[in-house]
Specification:
Strand content of chain B: 25-35%
Oligomer: heterodimer
Number of domains of chain B: 1
Largest sheet of chain A: 5 strands, mixed
Distance between the termini of chain A: 43 Å
Number of helices of chain A: 4
CATH superfamily of chain B: Histidine kinase-like ATPase, C-terminal domain
Radius of gyration of chain A: 14 Å
CATH class of chain A: Alpha Beta
Largest interface: A-B, 22 and 27 residues
Distance between the termini of chain B: 20 Å
CATH superfamily of chain A: STAS domain
Order of helices and strands of chain A: EEHEHEHEH
Number of strands of chain B: 5
Number of domains of chain A: 1
Strand order of the largest sheet of chain B: 1-2-3-5-4
Largest sheet of chain B: 5 strands, antiparallel
Bound molecules: adenosine-5'-triphosphate, magnesium ion
CATH architecture of chain A: 2-Layer Sandwich
Helix content of chain A: 40-55%
Number of strands of chain A: 5
Radius of gyration of chain B: 15 Å
CATH topology of chain B: Heat Shock Protein 90
Number of helices of chain B: 4
Chain lengths: 125, 146
């Protein structure tokens, strides 16, 4: 875990044991609770698989962070992992995604500034 | 017609460490057989879901891995076997969101979507065997069975 200002950067690597993932979840929420954190970036670029267990851990990290007023962004998910997650049927509520950690940090920095417009997407009728 | 090979590997499923071994074995075998990256990932993810069900709901068990040749492409068959309580209502267990524990209830139905063939053999008191198969090349669509 790495702290960049008010943002916590967590890099996951390889194949996680269930117990490692649960420990991580606990560590992250303790860190957020005990320090001023506005955002959490979880770098998944080194992760080869997300199943429903890890998906639930990620969703719970985001939910907990949300309660403590911090945004969670998942960065760098591999295309094969993302495709599989969709077919598995996991929607990961509360989790935003970015292509890279840089994008994720930019997203969070953009949101910290109240005058920056939040999006340029336009809804089509 | 497919030629069923003999079981190539039998791995225990008794701890979350075993789940890691199962995933690694499936990943490695699928890569050797020539599965593409997306199909490898799907098969590993399905295996992870089913092995965890064997561990959590079935009280532990094992997985049998079999390499198949059906004439046009190799395939990998995985049978997750336990002697736990069994599944009383399979249709309900397969439906998205149903869990008897505190899971998301996506494992069984999700795993079915991630593989080419999926079968459950289970009855209350007689344990559960979930067998999945994927091929490196998706076989031509079979006629729907009625
Ligand atoms: N091997 C098994 N033995 C007995 N019951 C099983 C087995 N596998 C699945 N089940 C039953 O089917 C239900 C649905 O399984 P599924 O994997 O979809 O969800 P889950 O394991 O409860 O949650 P998760 O989303 O975390 O996988 C389980 O809650 C359980 O009741
Ligand atoms: Mg499950």
């Amino acid at each position: 875990m790495l702290r960049l200002g008010d943002v916590l950067l967590v890099t996951l690597q390889g194949d996680l044991h269930d117990s490692t993932a649960e420990q991580l979840q606990q560590d992250i929420s303790e860190t957020i609770a005990s320090s001023s954190t506005t955002g959490v970036v979880i770098d998944l670029s080194g992760v080869e698989m997300v199943d429903s267990f890890l998906g639930r851990v990620l969703a719970e990290i985001a939910a907990k962070a949300g309660l403590l007023a911090a945004q969670t962004v998942v960065a760098g998910m591999r295309p094969a992992v993302a495709i599989t997650l969709v077919e598995l049927g996991l929607t990961l509520p509360g989790l935003r995604t970015a292509l890279t950690t840089e994008d994720a940090l930019g997203l969070l920095a953009g949101e910290a500034s109240p005058y920056r417009s939040r999006g340029t997407r336009r809804e089509s009728p | 017609m497919q030629t069923v090979g003999c079981v190539d590997a039998r791995l225990p499923i008794h701890s979350d460490m075993d789940l890691v071994w199962v995933r690694q074995h499936v990943r490695q075998t699928a890569a050797q057989l020539g599965f593409g990256l997306v199909e490898q990932t799907k098969l590993v993810t399905a295996a992870s879901e089913l092995a965890r069900n064997t561990l959590v709901h079935g009280g532990g068990g094992e997985v049998e891995a079999t390499v198949l040749r059906n004439g046009h492409a190799p395939g990998l068959r995985l049978a997750f076997i336990d002697e736990g309580p069994g599944i009383a209502d399979l249709e309900r267990a397969l439906s998205d969101g149903y869990t008897s524990g505190d899971g998301l209830g996506m494992g069984l139905g999700g795993a079915r979507r991630l593989v080419h063939e999926f079968a459950v053999d289970s009855s209350p008191g007689n344990g559960t065997t979930v067998t999945v198969t994927s091929w490196t090349v998706r076989p031509p669509r079979h006629r729907e069975e009625h």
